[in-house]
Amino acid sequence: MNTKKEKMIPVMEIFGPTVQGEGMVIGQKTMFVRTAGCDYQCAWCDSAFTWDGSAKDEIRRLTAREIVNELKATGGDAFSHVTISGGNPALIRHMGELVEHLHEQNIDVALETQGSIWQDWFLSIDDLTLSPKPPSSKMKPNLQILDDIISRLKDQPSNNYSLKVVVFNDEDLDFAESIHKRYPNVLFFVQTGNNQVHEENDKRLVSDLISRYEWLIDRVMERAALNRVRVLPQLHTYVWGNKRGV
Amino acid sequence: MNTKKEKMIPVMEIFGPTVQGEGMVIGQKTMFVRTAGCDYQCAWCDSAFTWDGSAKDEIRRLTAREIVNELKATGGDAFSHVTISGGNPALIRHMGELVEHLHEQNIDVALETQGSIWQDWFLSIDDLTLSPKPPSSKMKPNLQILDDIISRLKDQPSNNYSLKVVVFNDEDLDFAESIHKRYPNVLFFVQTGNNQVHEENDKRLVSDLISRYEWLIDRVMERAALNRVRVLPQLHTYVWGNKRGV
């Protein structure tokens, strides 16, 4: 099926159409392509199965064309937007091929990454979310790399890319504030964390997540340094709890 | 206090900072100025107190400067964004004064209106939401007026304005689809309606509103004519139920 020259992308799951539950295009009807593999191991990662080995048998190595075909087979004609998430899809140098194939079919492409790696194909992404990880993740983002990424994006339309920081506690919010101060002109989102990624009681989960959202709203409202900020939950968890593939 | 020349704005309430719970800048930290008076009487209006006489004693006639002063007194320096809502604030011909005063202080301004009336000061609004009312409202939007409004906005940046249709049932969704087809290049949102604006049991309300959101997502996912669409709830009702002033 694949010619020798085609490059493979490690795919964990392809699903949709559904709504994007978070960030700059929250609510957008979209398909998801979730890649396997990550350079981070966030303490609270809600997609740890992409890198912790627990779902390694589900990983498939597909060409960009095969991914497009599977998107079409799954979503039919009921989508015009694809979100590439992970793991960290920025690990994949030749992802630009997939972006090109989708654009050829008039399909917009969003990407979610922590901002630890630059790829030239970022310039083709319609909705790019850079999500540097706060202290609670136990990761330590390299801000020189993030500086470089942001500077390479400076000629893009301002609504094509954004920063998003997940916040679990006050220390995380201080980190979010420092990121917003560092890049004051970049569209900026703070988002409630989900510290119960294994909770299966949806009612209890939603009630707790809404309380966490209210806590985050209250904290952001107090801070004049966080005026040009959007505060959002992960909407999909309100609807589907911790289920995968929706 | 007021010189004779200053024009008065009928204000129902001023509150914040809080988050914008819906539409194109959902999650944005903002102050709200809610004006009194409406040319519509939607069957399910969630702010009927602005026009049904039930809160007429709360209406104050304020100048643009007085409104700015009250915003500052209420929100201090913890805001850079003001949302003007109603009622229908587009009824007020001289609202442009308030927009100017706010812009002078580097404060962005959002406006929410049904799109039944054009005002030249719409061109100064940073986030303009036009929300033509669906059949369940029992109102009949004049689409010639909406055509005119959209055509006057055509040179604005595309992320400065949007259409939003509230959807309670399939007939409303058909209406939403017809609006999206009429203005395919305008940023488009569909939003769950709240048919229990007097429910005081927050848990019951939220559970029901989330079910309605899931219903709307499912319906939009099926329709290829609704691919470039964002589907959102009213987030503030998840956090604060039907409370006013938050």
UniProtKB/TrEMBL annotation, chains A, B:
**Gene3D superfamilies named among the record's database cross-references:** Aldolase class I
Q: Which reaction does it catalyse?
A: 6-carboxy-5,6,7,8-tetrahydropterin + H(+) = 7-carboxy-7-carbaguanine + NH4(+)
Q: Where does S-adenosyl-L-methionine bind?
A: W44, C45, D46, G87, S131, P132, K133
Annotated [4Fe-4S] cluster binding lies at: C38, C42, C45
Query: What cofactor does its activity depend on?
Result: Mg(2+); S-adenosyl-L-methionine; [4Fe-4S] cluster
Q: Does the keyword Nucleotide-binding apply?
A: no
Primary role: Catalyzes the complex heterocyclic radical-mediated conversion of 6-carboxy-5,6,7,8-tetrahydropterin (CPH4) to 7-carboxy-7-deazaguanine (CDG), a step common to the biosynthetic pathways of all 7-deazapurine-containing compounds.
| The protein's name | 7-carboxy-7-deazaguanine synthase
Give the originating organism: Jeotgalibacillus soli
